[in-house]
Each structure stands twice: as C-alpha cells, then as structure tokens.
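quick one, two chains, predict together pls
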Amino acid sequence: MIPGPELDSAAPGTAIGTTIDTVIQLTGVERTFPSDPPVHALRDVHLTVRRGEHLAIVGPSGSGKSTLLNTLGLLDRPTAGSYLLDGVETTGLGDLERTSLRGSRIGFVFQSFHLLPYRTVDENVMLAEAYRRPRPGRGRGGRLARAHQALEQVGLGHRVGFRPDRLSGGERQRVAIARALLSDPALLLCDEPTGNLDTENTLSVLELFDDLCGQGMTLVVITHDDAVSRRAGRRVRITDGHLAEEAK
Amino acid sequence: MSVVEREMETTARVERPWMDPRDLWTEALAGVLARPVRSALTTLGTVLGITTLVITIGVASTAGNQIVGRFDALTATSVTVTVPEPLPGAEDAGPLVPWSGTDAVARLAGVESVAALADSDATDSVLVRANDVTAPGDLSGQTLAVVAASAGLPAAVHGRMTAGRFYDAGDIARRDHVVVLGDQAAQILGIKRVEDAPAVFFRGQSYTVIGILGGIRREARLSTAVLVPPTTAADRIGLRNVTRVLVNTALGAAKQVARQAPIALAPGHQDSLAVVAPPDLSKARAGVQNDANSLFLVLGLVSLVVGAIGIANVTLVTVMERVGEIGLRRSLGASRRQVAGQFLLESTTIGLLGGVVGAALGIAVVVCVAVAKEWTPVLDLRLALGAPLAGALVGLLAGLYPSLRAARMEPVDALRAPS
C-alpha cells in the first residue's frame, strides 16, 4: 500500500497535481539565515511524502536536518518555495493559523520526550486536545477514554495514572507518541526519537513505529542512527542543505 | 470526495486556536500545584500585605464603632438649651423664654419630647421635711433641690412614675400645691406610696406629694429633687424664669433641632441662648478612621507592592524553568495568547490565594483584638470580599511581564530547552 519512493524534482506548479494521498509537498524550499555570511540551511528542497509512508531523513549534524524538521513542523518559515501540508498551502498563513494547523495535523515526537513531569501520563496525553475546539464526536468528556485508548495503542495501558518519572525512557517516549497520536494527526514528525534511549528501548519504539506504519500512519523520522533509518520504507539524506534520495 | 472538495474542506478546517476555559484553569492550577512549596512561599508577600490592610481597616472601623458606641442613642438625641439669667435691670422686661416656649419647640420636626426647667442657686438646697412635727433629737429635715418643671418632664428625662402621677396642665393652671418627688428624694424622705396623700414641707408651706418619678436617665440630679409646677413655684418660691429646656429628638435630627430650638424658644434673642448638642457622629467616626492608621495603610500597600514584585520574580523564574514546556505547548497548537493566559492565570491564582489567606488572617486578628478589648468587631463585607480580589489583582499585574516573556518565545528556541 506504500507508494513507491519518489523524489519530486518537478518544477513548481506540480502542486496542482497533488492528490489526497500527498501529506507533504515541498517545492523549491529555501531557508537562509540572515547572518554574515548568510547561512543557507536549505537549498532548493523538493520533497513529497504520501499518506502511509515511513520516511527517514538522515544527515550529519549541521547539515540542515533541524531546519528541515522545523520547516516541516511549521515551527519555522521557509525563505522561499512552497509547503503544502495535508493539502493546505502553509507559506502564506499567519502565525495563528500555522499554530492551529500544527496542533491539529502534526504529532511531534521529540528526542527529550517533552513530558510534563508534574502531570500523570494520561494528563500528558490529554494535553494534545487542550488547544483546539473539540471535533464533532470527540468532546471534552471523552478525552480521558481516548487518552487511555492511545496509551493502549502504544502498549502502556498498565501505566495509566503514573507520573513520567516512574517510567523507563522507552516508556516515556511511547507516552509522547501516544500524545502525538491523540490529535489524530496527518503526520507523525519524530526528531531523533531514539536519541536518548538504550538499544532495548530503541527496539521497542521502532517496533511501535512499524505497528503504526502498518495502521497507515504517515511517519517522518529525522535521525542519524542507521538502525532507525533502516526501518523506514524510504530514506533521504540531507547534506549542506541539499536533499538527495538514498537507495535502500 | 473529489480532490477539489477535499481541498476546500481542508482549507476551511484551518481553524483558530481555541481553549476551553476549564482546560485553561486546569493547566494553570496544575502549574501552581506542581511546586506547592514555592507557590506557598510566593504568596507570602501578598498574604502579609493583605493581612496588614485588613487588620488596619478592620481595627480602625471596629475602634471607630466603639468610640461612636459611647455616644449612645440617648446622647445622640439629647439637646439642651440653657437660658441665661436676665441681665440686671432687665428683669421687668419679661422672661427671655416663656414656659409656653416648650410648645413651640414640640412642634419642630424631629422633636420627640421637650420640657422646661427652672432652678436657681437659692432653691438648690432647701430644707424639706416629710412631716410638720419636730421631735427632739430627730432629724429636722433633708436638704434637697426644688425645681420647677413643665408637665412634659417625665418623657423628657426618660423617666417613669413609680408611684402616683405627674402633675398635669390642670394642676398647673389651678396652681395646686402639689409636688412630685424624684425617687431618691422620696427614699430620703421616707415616702414610699402616695395613695394616702403624704405631704412635704419646705419654706414654711405644705405640699401634697402626688407622685414619685423614677428611672431618670437624663438630668439624673432630678432624682433627688422636689418637682413643683411652674405656676406654683412662681407664686410660692419665686422660681419664675426658665433656665433650661431639655429636648429629645429623633435619631439624626439633633443637629437640626439644636439649630431651630433657640429660635422657637426666644425669637429674636436666639443668640443669647446656649445650646448643647451631641457631636456629629459621622464626623467622629471618620475622624477616628482617618488619623488612626494612615501609617499602617501605607505599610500594607508597601507590603502589597513587595508581594507583587515577589510574584513577578518567581513567575519569571518559573517561566524560564518551563521554556521546554512552553515549546511543547506551542507544538501542540497553543497560541501565544494561550501560553500568556496560562501564566497570567497562574500568577493571578497565587495572588488570589494570598488574598484569601491574608483576608482570613486579618479578619481573625481583628476579631481577636475586638475580643481582647471587649469590643464588637465591625466587619465591612466589602473588605472581606475585596481583599481576595485585591490579591488577585496584584497577582494579575505581577504576571503581566513574565507572561509576555513566555508568549514572545519562539517555539523553535523553546523546544531546544530541556523539559
């Protein structure tokens, strides 16, 4: 069901051909930081990610990996080019709309988990729905049940009510993944998700990724770990701001 | 669903960030309770300031009420007009205040009872005996004051007849030889009942005792006096001129009656009459509250400002410690305004907490002070409710800058911080 790998190198205007299967479409994206001399973090990046794809972005540090992640996550604005997320052209949007889009379409998974230490696991997961109008059929009242369901989905049904500091690193990351899943995102954006985990925990998280992929979730994982990127259905490498498809 | 339809739908679905107020409250409360000791310490400044303010205002109003309480209702409604002696040579010009002047005063608005008195140095100590028989070795009599009074006297001195009746207009018109004794005077003279028409003797004449006036609450010296109808007094003992007029007013009317009574009594000569009126109560109360404690008020306000700085400081530290959390919330779709709102609500909650604790402490101290001094604690409801609000306001103001800092953070930078 995963479409074949494809690096979109077509000229701008391809967006018209975007199908509902396209989650991410970057066209000619540039990001330049105004310093002396200017830093070109991203140069003419073209990338298309289809629904259900599992994509790994690899590259050495300083290659523009983080900038690409920030751009994909609507945390940063490209200097030039176009970014269609789930069919919405994002480059022209204001701060509020980008924030809202980020909250509703993207589930973030961070290297350092970013769990609130003073809240229980379920409260951390429920936070994902706090900042937007409840969708029809997903009212505030059913939030706890949905959080439990998401925790079940990542295999942590038995940790309900725990505080994050009583969990192992792998469990914490799975809580963060449950939180990202709660908002039913179009895209799971993972930034070095196993960077703080030992081999065993890394394995459990990667198995979860495989499961999610099997359920049709779109995954973009930024990593420098070969073990992680090998699991992905498709791998792109970023070097000095240039994106290049890697053969498996 | 066609591609176009889906595009239209997705574009329409770019909504604005929105937060249920209950969620905002939950997040803020969790933020405050996450570091309970720190939050508790942060409230201290506000607690101190609000406590000081509540104690200052509460004790001032309690003490003020106490001072005002001393001017009880009786004093507050008593007006006394003193009539000077006629000038030498002017005796023939007629009395300055006629006995009928009481009727004019009684007609004034706010007057409840009025009576005129006449006394003089000569009649202040008169030898009064209860019988005409002089037995050797027996006491020959008692020295009592003889006072002429108009018929309205019992009401004017808030007294009541313990026996018999007071003389009335008929007795006065007939110039009857009757007297009423003050209860002390009756006791001294050994007269307990008036049914058998006892007599008293003074200045060589006899008078029938028709009543005993007791329970005198105003002009208490009258309880040891012999009261004579004005006509009789004028005829027999030379007490002609009204020397004092006792007026009782409705509560609050004393000031106005004090102004009008002299004019009613002696039109054209009102300035020669001296009026004793109760002091203005509202002024007395305000005076006490004003001078009492402006110093402590300033102290309380200073504490509040210090409390505000404390809250601002700690909230700022908290914001800096929670940069990662701010980044996370932004990544979950929180707008700048929602992030600011949460920190603002946290600092406001801390301020409100300080205000509630401070108000409670302050009220407790006011009650304790009142109990210790046997006063009635006076608590302004506005103070009890306003103090926590003032605390919340302090917290709100203190949270403005830290919240602004939190809102200004870029999510990219914030997410780099450890959470």
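Confidence is low (pLDDT under 50) at residues 1-10 of chain B.
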